[in-house]
Amino acid sequence: MKFFYCLCLSFLFTQIFAQSSRQIASDTAGIYFSKTITEKDLQRHLFKLASAEMEGRKTATKGQKKAALYLAQAMKRIGLKPANPKNKKNPYLQPFKVMISGWHYSLYRSTVESRHEKLPIAETENVVGWIEGTDKKDEFIIISGHYDHEGVQEGKIYFGADDNASGISTILEIAEAFMLAQRAGFSPRRSIVFLLVSAEEVGLLGSKYYADFEPLFPLEKTIVNLNIDMIGRVDENYKKKNIENYVYLIGSDRISTELDSLQRAVNDTYTKIILDYTHNDPLHPEMLYYRSDHYNFAKKNIPIIFYFSGLHADYHQPTDTPEKIRYAKMSKIGQLIFLTAWQIANREQRLRIDKAEKK
Ligand SMILES: [Zn+2]
Questions:
Q1: Of 24, 178, 326, 354, most Cβ neighbours within 10 A?
Q2: For residues 164 and 54, is the Cβ–Cβ distance under 8 A?
Q3: Count of other CB atoms within 10 angstroms of residue 166
Q4: pLDDT (tens digit, 9 = 90+) per residue, 24-66?
Q5: Is 295 helix (H, G, I), strand (E, B) or coil?
C-alpha cells in the first residue's frame, strides 16, 4: 500500500513537472517568436499597402482589389491555409456584394432587397487565412482589421497609412510569427483566423457580412476577437507628454473580465506598454467601442479587444502617409497582441464570459 502510494505520488510529480516544463517551453517559444515582429517587416507591408498604386483602397474599386490580391498573396507566402475553399478563383477571398446609393453603402443580399435593383451593386472581398490548431482546433481566435480606406477624392489619394495599413501590416506579421512557431513544432492548440475585412469605412460591412451572414468558422466556437484599427501614430495627448509607448484598449473587460486580466498579465510580464482605458469608458464622446469591426462580434457576445493608438490631425485626410508612422511603437503593440493571442490559444480553459453585451 505504501509502495503504491509512493508510486502514485511520484507519478503525480512527474506529470506536474512535465506539464509545467511544457508550459515553460511554450511561454519561452512565445517570447522568441514575438521577436520576429520587426519594424523592418512592418514597414515593407505598410509602404506597399499605403502606396499610390493601391489608390486609397476604396471599397469595390480597382485599388481595393489590388490590395486584396496583395494580401492573399502574402497569406499564401506565409503559409496560412485559405479559409474559403468554396471560392475556386481565390480561396483566400470571401466576396460579398454592396449596394451603393451616393455616399451610402449597404450589404446587398439578392433575395431580400431585389426591389432596389436599380441602384448600382458592386462586389468587394474580405481576405481570410487561418492556422489550424492541435488538440483544441475546433475553437477559434479571430485577429481582424480592415484594409479598405477612402480612395481618391478630388484627385487626391487618401493613403490610409495609419487607417488601417498599420493594423493590417501588424496582422500579417503576427500571422507569420505563428507560422514560424508552428514550423518549429510549437503549433497553437486552438485555431487562429486572420480576417482582413473590406467595407469598414462605409459602415463596418465586411465584418457584418462575416458575422451576420457567412461566418467561415462557427461563431459559437469563436472564443475571442482581437481587432486592430490604427496603431501607428501618437495622439496629441501623448505627444504633449512625450510618450510613445502606449495603446488604448477598448472593450477588453466588457464581456469577459478574464480576458482583461489575461491582457494585463501578458503586458506586465512581457511588453510593459501603458494600457490606456480612456476610450473604454462607455460615456466617452468618441464612442469608439461601436466604431470598428470588433463590434460585429461583441454584439454576438464574443469577447473582444480593440487596439487603437488615438485620433490625430491626419485622420481621414490625404496626409495619413507611411513616413509618419512610428514603427518601433507598432512592433511593440504587435508583440503584445501576438503574445496575448498565444496565451489565449494555448491555455487549458476557453475564456469565461461573465457579462452580457448590452444592446
Ligand atoms: Zn479604421
A1: 178
A2: no
A3: 33
A4: 889 999 999 999 999 999 999 999 999 999 999 999 999 999 9
A5: helix
* Cα(231) to centroid(ligand 1), Å: 10
Check which CATH number belongs to the domain holding 299 and give it: 3.40.630.10
262 inside domain: yes
Residue 201 CA to ligand 1 center (angstroms) comes to: 7
- How many Å is the maximal CA-CA distance in the chain? 87
- Cell 477588453: give the residue: 252
The answer to whether residue 116 sits within a structural domain is no
Q: What 3-state class would DSSP assign to 358?
A: coil
pLDDT (0 to 100) of residue 12: 62
Question: From CA 317, how far away is CA 314, in angstroms rounded?
Answer: 5
Supply the range of the domain harboring residue 283. 29-94+126-346
Q: Tell me, what DSSP letter sits at residue 149?
A: B
CA 205 to CA 110: how far, in whole Å?
16
DSSP string, 29-89: HHHHHHTT--HHHHHHHHHHHTSGGGGGGBTTSHHHHHHHHHHHHHHHHHTPEES-TT-SS
DSSP bridge pairs for 131: 192
Q: Is there a contact between 111 and 60 (Cβ–Cβ < 8 Å)?
A: no
- Amino acid (1-letter code) at residue 131: I
Q: pTM value?
A: 0.94
Strand partners, 107: 98
Indicate the Cα dihedral angle 171, 172, 174, 176, nearest 10°. 160
267, amino acid identity: N
Question: Looking at the domain assignment, is residue 15 inside a domain?
Answer: no
How many structural domains compose the chain?
1
Q: Say how many Å lie between the CA of residue 287 and the centre of ligand 1.
A: 14
C-alpha cell at 235: 495622439
